[in-house]
Amino acid sequence: MILFLLFLNFSCTSFYNETYKKPDLVDENPSMNLKKVHKKLFYSTKKGVAIGHQDATSYGVGWKYDENKKTITSDAEQVSGSLPAVYGFDIGHIELNNKYNLDSVSFDSMRNLIIKAHNQGGLITISWHLDNPVTAGNSWDKTPAVSKILKDKKYKVKYELWIERVADFFKSLKVNNELVPIIFRPFHEMNGSWFWWGEGNCSATDYKTLWQETVKLLRDKHNLHNLLYVYSPNKLNPEDDYMKYYPGDEYVDILGIDIYDFNDSEAFAKSVVNDLNIVKSIANKKNKLFAFTETGLEGVKTQNWFTKIVYPNIENTGASWILFWRNANKKHHYLPYKEHHNASDFKAFKEKPKTLFLEDLSN
Ligand code: BMA
What we know:
Blueprint (H helix, E strand, L loop, with lengths): L1 H14 L16 H16 L1 E6 L4 E2 L2 E2 L10 H6 L5 E5 L16 H13 L3 E5 L18 H6 L1 H19 L2 E2 L2 E2 L2 E4 L18 H18 L5 E5 L22 E7 L4 H22 L2 E8 L8 H10 L6 E4 L18 H9 L3 E2 L1 H5 L1
Parallel strand pairs: 1-4, 1-12, 1-13, 4-5, 5-8, 8-9, 9-10, 10-11, 11-12
Antiparallel strand pairs: 2-3, 6-7
Helix pairs in contact: 8-9, 9-10
Bound molecules: beta-D-mannopyranose.
């Protein structure tokens, strides 16, 4: 018994220390892998901002993983020589039991790529553009549905089935009998009015309840202990309160914000400085990490956008990561690809002292 206690004491003190104290996570019983990811993020944040890309390894401009499964690549790697540190995936349509997500990535490929990225030391973040459960329209179908899920038996049952499918997918992400830790970012950009779970399409109270119920289903009913939960509103308008939809400290691990550059780099930079400051000060008070959970300039048209607009505004923020949105095609992409006029700028961005790529995380 004494030996056991000594061992317990030793193993606890060796994992946590004066600098990295035991965090209050949504999950009081997190898996070892999850604890390690949180600690890794805590320490990497002291070095810089981890660079992420949505669907990084699934496809890029002019290529698809499915067409050549032997090599893992990304447009980030093709222009800078390094793979990203953070890998964004979206499980929209897992709820329908489909083989492919809403952007035509097969869930089998996604599973492979998640496991590969994790094995290489990368961090995985997952968003969920789920369909509207009332109409079977997509995420952008604004027909009110949140109150229906909470109050109408028929939709509650349907939503619980959807969560079961999410849980089954998460449970399939296994390496050596341990589940891959996932940074889960459901119901994002709720302060905007474009999703059915967004502003004007559901009340803040119902939003919070849906979030809390979702956590309880995944954690308590499906016994998933490999998830960190990220709250991720969109860019704040002057009258916006970042906390309006916040489901509570017990239900959120990491604070996030999504801000895009809509061809106005000055306005974008202003928002980034202003909003990240707000998120940072709230996160600091709550002893939580925070991140720049989505960003980009479609087509990356502005010359030197990464080194001149993004870098100076994020280098000293203390954000844990930044996630650039997906590279679907020559029109819809948020990182440069080979031959793009900003390819060398992204390479220069990689060379900056505070940008962390995969090799910086694994070291
Ligand atoms: C949006 C666009 C869409 C995509 C969705 C989910 O921002 O990229 O084309 O379907 O994200 O990934």
